[in-house]
Amino acid sequence: MHLCFLCNEYPPAPHGGIGSFTQTLARELVKHGHSASVVGLYPIDSPATEDDQGVSVLRVPQGRIPKLRIAANFFRMQQALKRLHRERPIDLLEGADRSFFLVSPRLPIPKLLRMHGGYVATLMHLGQVPERQKVLEDRWAVRVATHLCACSRFVAEANRKRLALGDRPIRVILNPVDLRLFRPQDPALEEDGLIVCVGTIIERKGIRQLVEAMPQVIAAYPRARLIAYGNDSVDSRTGESFAEKLRRSIPPGLSDRITLAGPVRREQLPALMAKASVCIYPSHVEALPIAWVEGLAMGKAVIGARIGPGPEVIEDGVSGLLCDPHDPNSIAAALLTLLRDPALRTRLGAAGRARAEQLFSLEKLVHENIAFYRECASGPGT
């Protein structure tokens, strides 16, 4: 089959979980004898093509004139997809969340919308009011899609309710992790007291509450220190860097114990995570967080949030710990529990690796995806 993915954050461009997911799955599809293409819009001057381990990547320039941007992006996306379809017929087009807003329903290709959270569902979960334009884009995207799937039961049911999908079928396929890349390493690499967080530096990832918890953690466990890896975010109203705002909030004398290290290439993460005593992800909202699963696969003691899909990923007290991500005291308590108990970290880490192998193995889930792709490519959808 020729599978084509819509993705505006395909590595090495700045990316989050969707970019990592797309690259991981597309590369694995190629290894299993399928053809994989990726088309996305990027802030570049001219089209660019590249080969990523057999995955054909086309980066299309974004429209830049504000009032014409949506129309320009729609036109450029249709042209790119039609050209690709003529050259190599596409069996299935996959896009995440709102991406089908820029795809014509007349494009004669089955269209699978994979729900990685969704704009409307995410903001409503956070108690915020979504922008009307983006609500319309979300709703239009699900209408364009011929098939739907979601990365967790939480995401499937949240979107079913908030997008009024009724009894429309939504297949749940968990996000995979490459167990060959993310695997337990020499325990001697672990640095006592090192806490690692991976994710975008943004309010909804719980990084502010984590930083607020650190003085309490350091006071009780003096060797504790935090390194957070991830892209910065910018307040659209003020243009202010969220990372800089956080740095200003760090108490005097602790700036060398709390580091916002910026983004790193995904291939670098295993070596950095191998040094951690604890990996923590206190997100306020997630779909099915790939970073958490990578921590489990590394055999690390992982702390996640007990809300949203948290219990789908981590069995509290068995394969990791869950905390209240809005409460710095809860975050601090979970961190101190693990920092003070190496045996508990080892036990949870081993159980976490076993859970990753059981539920999130790329080798297992690529076959589940391929079977669903064949079903979508041959069926009319609803």
Q: What coarse outline follows from CA principal-axis ratios?
A: globular
Oligomer: single chain
Hey, roughly how much beta strand do the residues contain? 15-25%
What is the strand tally? 14
CATH architecture descriptor of the largest domain = 3-Layer(aba) Sandwich
Count of all domains: 2
Low-pLDDT stretches are none
Task: Outline the fold blueprint.
Blueprint: E1 2-6, H1 17-31, E2 35-42, E3 48-52, E4 55-61, H2 69-87, E5 92-96, E6 111-115, H3 119-125, H4 132-144, E7 147-150, H5 153-162, E8 171-172, E9 194-198, H6 207-220, E10 225-229, H7 242-249, E11 258-262, H8 269-273, E12 278-281, H9 290-297, E13 301-305, H10 310-313, E14 321-323, H11 328-339, H12 342-359, H13 362-378
Parallel strand pairs: 1-2, 1-5, 2-4, 5-6, 6-7, 7-8, 9-10, 9-12, 10-11, 12-13, 13-14
Antiparallel strand pairs: 3-4
Helix pairs in contact: 1-13, 6-11, 9-12
